[in-house]
């Protein structure tokens, strides 16, 4: 460290090692990775909830309720087509100009798209233009989230101590249950404070418009960050990839495929436990719950999702990523085979326990991913590689999961939804068996 140099407040000075790179404090890393992903997932889940409760009534022609729900879920799936595009786009700039600037851009893209949804007129006002504009904004949401997760995961893991990478990698993962909890909590509060007519008229717009305030907070937090040490070293050595997307497919294709399928069961499980369960649980042809009681049960389940995320990170740091995920994936397969009789039971206790166990398993499989996917790729293409594999899994798993599950349940029975989940779990288990342990992998290559 140069004579007279004083590290900035909240920055870990690495002068003892001779490295002049400014370091983000643990507090900065936690806040920046957690706040950003919480906002992003809040935006995403606001749409998911509205796609089940509101959009079938407002943005599509009146008629068959199941058809309207399927059309709404189809617009929900558009974001998952956009996410790999966003991962390639933002991944390019994340690997070329840095993690910090790219994370700011992804947050703006997601936030603006969400706010505009809250301002859109419905089908009765502008006809077919309404669902088209809704689909366009949904594409923008997917584009932003496609670049968000990878950058947030790298922000956490590239600033983490070597023996705590999986734990640090859970910071952005906690954004999922936090964002989901607040998105659904706000919908629940609004539905309790106003009647159905007011809620469908204007109340549903409030969660989307609130996103503007949250984005300002997220931008303020992220603009105060320093670049990660790993990326700073790549810049100093002049080793940035010219076209990260092409380099990933050329040099790290196996890691890309493995990362995608390692994430597959995670995505299918989560969107079955949230979007599908809410749709089936509140449908007259399903379990027939009122909206508010089911949302309360779902939020209780999400609490267990949040609690198990850091537990999974600690286990992955102690015992390794593969053992932790393999045991969890086997449990997901068993859970899937029990889904039909468990979720289909005419009992509040059965429904609540189903949501708690399913979302608890979600935390166990989602928690380590913040470390696992970044560890598969070298620094020069890590943003692109981790983001693309994460979002390809979303395209193959999450985008179609609610639609497939709704079709299976209505055409062949609830048990086949569980078979679908178990099959996706088997694919993930196979990918884990083929992959190598990354616990000891250096990420400052």
From TrEMBL:
Provide the protein name.
Putative proline/betaine transporter
Which Pfam families does the entry mention?
Answer: MFS_1 (PF07690), Sugar_tr (PF00083)
The way it spans or sits in the membrane comes to: Multi-pass membrane protein
Name the InterPro entries on file. Answer: MFS (IPR011701), MFS_dom (IPR020846), MFS_sugar_transport-like (IPR005828), MFS_trans_sf (IPR036259), MHS_symport (IPR004736), Sugar_transporter_CS (IPR005829)
Source organism of the structure: Saccharopolyspora hirsuta
Compartmental location:
Cell inner membrane
Q: What does this protein do?
A: May be a proton symporter involved in the uptake of osmolytes such as proline and glycine betaine.
Q: Which CDD domains match?
A: MFS_ShiA_like (cd17369)
Q: Which SUPFAM superfamilies match?
A: MFS general substrate transporter
Q: Classify the main location.
A: membrane
Segments for region (Disordered)? 1-24
Provide the Major facilitator superfamily (MFS) profile domain boundaries. Answer: 29-440
Q: Which UniProt keywords apply?
A: Cell inner membrane, Cell membrane, Membrane, Symport, Transmembrane, Transmembrane helix, Transport
Tell me the protein family, please. Belongs to the major facilitator superfamily. Metabolite:H+ Symporter (MHS) family (TC 2.A.1.6) family.
- Keyword Membrane carried by entry: yes
């Amino acid at each position: 460290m140069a004579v007279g140099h004083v590290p900035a407040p909240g920055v870990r000075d690495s002068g003892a090692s001779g490295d002049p790179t400014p370091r983000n404090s643990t507090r900065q890393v936690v806040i920046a990775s957690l706040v950003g992903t919480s906002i992003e997932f809040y935006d995403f889940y606001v749409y998911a909830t509205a796609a089940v409760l509101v959009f079938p009534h407002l943005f599509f022609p009146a008629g068959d309720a199941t058809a309207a729900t399927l059309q709404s879920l189809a617009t929900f799936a558009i974001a998952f087509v956009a996410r790999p595009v966003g991962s390639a786009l933002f991944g390019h700039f994340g690997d070329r100009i840095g993690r910090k600037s790219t994370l700011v851009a992804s947050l703006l893209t997601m936030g603006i798209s969400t706010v505009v949804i809250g301002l859109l007129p419905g089908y009765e006002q502008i006809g077919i233009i309404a669902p088209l504009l809704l689909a366009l904004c949904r594409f923008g949401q997917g584009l932003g989230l496609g670049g968000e997760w990878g950058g947030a995961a790298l922000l956490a893991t590239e600033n983490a101590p070597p023996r705590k990478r999986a734990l640090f990698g859970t910071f952005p993962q906690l954004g999922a249950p936090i964002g989901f909890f607040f998105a659904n909590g706000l919908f629940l509060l609004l539905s309790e404070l106003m009647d159905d007519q007011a809620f469908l008229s204007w109340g549903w717009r409030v969660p989307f418009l609130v996103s503007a305030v949250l984005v300002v907070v997220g931008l303020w937090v992220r603009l105060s960050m320093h670049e990660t040490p790993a990326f700073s070293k790549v810049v100093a050595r002049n080793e940035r990839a010219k076209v990260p997307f092409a380099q990933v497919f050329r040099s790290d294709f196996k890691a890309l495929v493995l990362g995608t399928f390692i994430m597959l069961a995670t995505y299918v499980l989560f969107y079955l436990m949230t979007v599908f369960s809410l749709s089936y649980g509140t449908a007259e042809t399903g379990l027939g719950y009122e909206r508010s009681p089911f949302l309360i049960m779902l939020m209780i389940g999400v609490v267990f999702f949040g609690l198990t995320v850091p537990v999974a990170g600690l286990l992955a740091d102690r015992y390794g990523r593969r053992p932790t995920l393999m045991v969890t994936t086997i449990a997901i397969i068993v859970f899937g085979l029990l889904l039909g009789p468990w979720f289909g039971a005419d009992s509040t206790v059965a429904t609540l326990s189903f949501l708690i166990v399913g979302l608890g398993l979600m935390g166990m499989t989602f928690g380590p991913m913040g470390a696992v996917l970044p560890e598969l790729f070298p620094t020069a293409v890590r943003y692109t590689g981790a983001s693309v594999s994460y979002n390809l899994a979303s395209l193959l798993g999450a985008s179609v999961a609610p639609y497939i599950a709704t079709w299976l349940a209505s055409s062949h029975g609830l048990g086949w939804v569980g078979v679908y989940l178990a099959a996706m779990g088997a694919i993930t288990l196979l990918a884990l068996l083929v992959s190598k342990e990354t616990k000891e992998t250096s990420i400052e290559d």
